[in-house]
Design goal:
The structure is a single chain. This protein is of the alpha+beta class. It is built from 22 helices and 19 strands. Among the domains are: 71 residues, no CATH class; 67 residues, no CATH class. The strands form five sheets. The chain has an eight-stranded mixed sheet, sandwiched between helices. α3 crosses α19, α5 crosses α19 and α7 crosses α19.
């Protein structure tokens, strides 16, 4: 492209032209852009020399065209011979980890590693940042043993990692020494780039089983120093009903579904005692924030409620040194005192009057038309209680929940009946429909019972069915502060922390764990915790692309779909490493992932070596987050 002009010398009219050929092959030129007359250019762009400005503009157009041509129009011709042996190594690499790597740096995980290395100057011989990256990306994309990660999976990434097994174990020991610091820094850094809702905190416990069958304390042949470092693997009530030793994890999640902190305790620990110590550590980062802690019924002990019973009348709250603390806990209706249990039942209260909500009588649901009309309606009823601590009891009723519990019970009754028929009830676990069976024994001679019979406990079935569809919570947030509908909505999101546990156990394959030393066990779950934070970050980035600004948990894709898409984004090395051909089936999810992380080059037919180097180097140049 070049500059041309027409008109009088004192006021030339400038335009950009380009040489070209006609269909017959004759050389000619064509106008690319009209720039205007000299006087108009001087006035519009506030310059004294219009021609100089025009020449600079044409030079910038030529430079831009040259760059686009070099970047977008380069091509690779591959020649392969049938009689040549293939290279010993695979030339297919995962590139989906580049999305995780960008979040790794945005979330300041490299800064955490740098701080740990400064704190422990004896750490030499390996880069903690690189080791942690391999451990996190491997846990998400190729969950496996540490040995398999070192020998195989680390070589499947586009970047060439050379991490040794000893580096991983040494890094785990360093991470374990500062578990609390890592969690604090991770919250502080992510708060700068993610939406963290610390006004609503969710807490729950689960356990993970070991592949070993004996507790470490059963090793009588080991010295006391060894036993001091092997205290976590204990027998307890396993969620999977396995006989293996387990460890218990307590997890806090913020109101946006992002993990906030965790603790690891021996498998026989009472979960009631785990929440307050962890909460004290976490709220140091936002001590003046008003928070509401939401738990299930198993964690709603008096001590836990008392700790989170800090209202506006508290002296430190008035002085601005700490925020208010409230609780919302699930309440088992069956465990309520008799007068509260009878009050909770919507059909009749203790006075014999019909209970209504907004002038609606639940007995009307016997009408099919009314039943269909209110199928998605949630009915509320509330009162205050003063048993040990002033609280508010809220009971809800939902037809959908009613049908779910009823169908679940009907299936259990069928299984229980089959157990009676096949006489297998003695071999069933306590969590099976065996709980619905009542047994009686008889003897032939009045001394030794040799015959046993069983029947369905209809009284228990009827009592359980009476409260189908009902759900109760107790809270110290009273009606003048928050309506019952909002309380119920906050409590309803407890399923998200259950999903966090499911992702850890199923998608990240954190169980069974193969470590026995306490430090390694804690470090193993710290890596799983950080990997979960990365995945939640990917979820938020994708949600930010949506026109309706759908946030978790209303996003378009599940964690399973996101992980599979990250695994599917691969590149094939071609022309001895001079280029890389993206290899994946086009999908809306992969397009969203590449767009939200600025990796649109991977949508091209081929990506040159220098471009791939720029892509991989990009996250490392990100502006580092600051602590809040």
């Amino acid at each position: 492209m070049r500059l041309s002009h027409t008109g009088k010398p004192d006021n030339y009219y400038y335009f950009v032209i380009e040489d070209c050929r006609t269909e017959t092959g004759r050389r000619t030129s064509r106008t690319i852009e009209k720039l205007g007359c000299a006087s108009a250019i001087r006035e519009k762009y506030k310059v004294d020399d219009a021609e100089a400005w025009c020449r600079n503009y044409v030079n910038s157009l030529n430079a831009r065209a040259l760059k686009e041509k070099s970047e977008k129009q380069r091509e690779i011709v591959i020649k392969l011979r049938e009689d040549h042996l293939k290279d010993k190594k695979s030339n297919i690499f995962n590139a989906g980890y580049l999305i995780l790597e960008k979040l790794y740096y945005e979330f300041g995980m490299n800064r955490i590693c740098e701080e740990l290395q400064d704190k422990h100057p004896h750490i030499t011989g390996y880069d903690l940042t690189e080791v942690l990256k391999v451990m996190l990306f491997g846990r998400i994309l190729f969950p496996s043993s540490k040995l398999a990660l070192v020998n195989d999976f680390q070589h499947r990434f586009f970047e060439k990692y050379e991490i040794e097994l000893q580096h991983i174990y040494r890094a785990m020991d360093v991470l374990n020494e500062d578990v609390s610091l890592v969690q604090d820094r991770l919250y502080q850094y992510t708060a700068n780039v993610c939406e963290r809702d610390v006004n609503h905190l969710y807490y729950d416990c689960t356990n993970f089983y070991s592949e070993k069958e004996l507790e470490d304390c059963d090793r009588d042949d080991m010295p006391d120093d060894w036993k001091k470092n092997h205290t976590l693997r204990k027998y307890g009530k396993s969620k999977e009903n396995r006989p293996n030793p387990i460890v218990q994890m307590g997890l806090f999640m913020d109101g946006n579904g992002i993990p906030l902190g965790f603790c690891i305790n021996p498998g026989n620990t009472n979960e009631q005692t785990t929440i307050v110590p962890l909460e004290k550590e976490l709220i140091k980062n936002f001590k003046t924030t008003d928070i509401t802690v939401c738990t299930d019924a198993g964690l709603s002990g008096d001590a836990n409620r008392s700790f989170n019973n800090v209202g506006e009348d508290d002296l430190l709250v008035k002085m601005g040194f700490r925020g208010q603390r409230h609780f919302i806990c699930t309440q088992s209706i069956k465990k309520l005192k008799l007068h509260l249990k009878e009050w909770s039942y919507f059909s009749l209260d203790t006075a014999g009057k019909r209970v209504t909500k907004t002038n609606f009588d639940l007995s009307k649901l016997s009408d099919p038309a009314c039943y269909a009309e209110h199928y998605h309606t949630i009915f509320f009823k509330e009162r205050t209680t003063a048993e040990g601590m002033d609280a508010r009891l809220i009971v809800t009723f939902s037809i959908k929940y009613y049908e779910f519990l009823r169908s679940l019970r009907e299936r259990k009754i069928k299984r229980a009946a089959k157990m009676i028929e096949n006489r297998t009830f003695d071999r069933e676990s306590d969590h099976s429909p065996k709980s619905l069976i009542e047994k009686t024994y008889s003897t032939e001679d009045g001394e030794i019972a040799v015959n046993a019979s069983a029947f369905l406990n209809t009284q228990k079935i009827e009592e359980d069915a009476r409260f189908d569809g009902f759900y109760a919570v107790t809270t110290n947030i009273f009606a003048d502060k928050m309506p019952a509908e909002q309380i119920a909505a906050i409590s309803a999101r407890r399923w998200e922390i259950e999903e966090c546990f499911r992702i850890m156990k199923t998608d990240l394959e954190s169980r069974p764990f193969y470590h026995s030393k306490d430090q390694r066990i804690t470090a193993h779950f710290l890596v799983c915790f950080m990997a979960l934070v990365l995945l939640r970050g990917v979820e938020q980035k994708i949600a930010s692309l949506n026109e309706n600004k759908l946030k978790y948990p209303d996003g378009k894709y599940s964690i399973e779909q996101i992980i599979q898409a990250l695994k599917d984004i691969r590149v094939i090395e071609v022309d001895n490493g001079n280029g890389y051909q993206p290899d994946y089936n086009n999908s809306e999810l992969i397009s969203d992932l590449l767009e939200c992380c600025g990796l649109t080059e991977l949508t091209h037919e081929v990506v040159m070596k220098d471009t791939m180097k720029k892509i991989s180097a990009g996250p490392k140049k990100l502006k580092q987050p600051k602590t809040t």
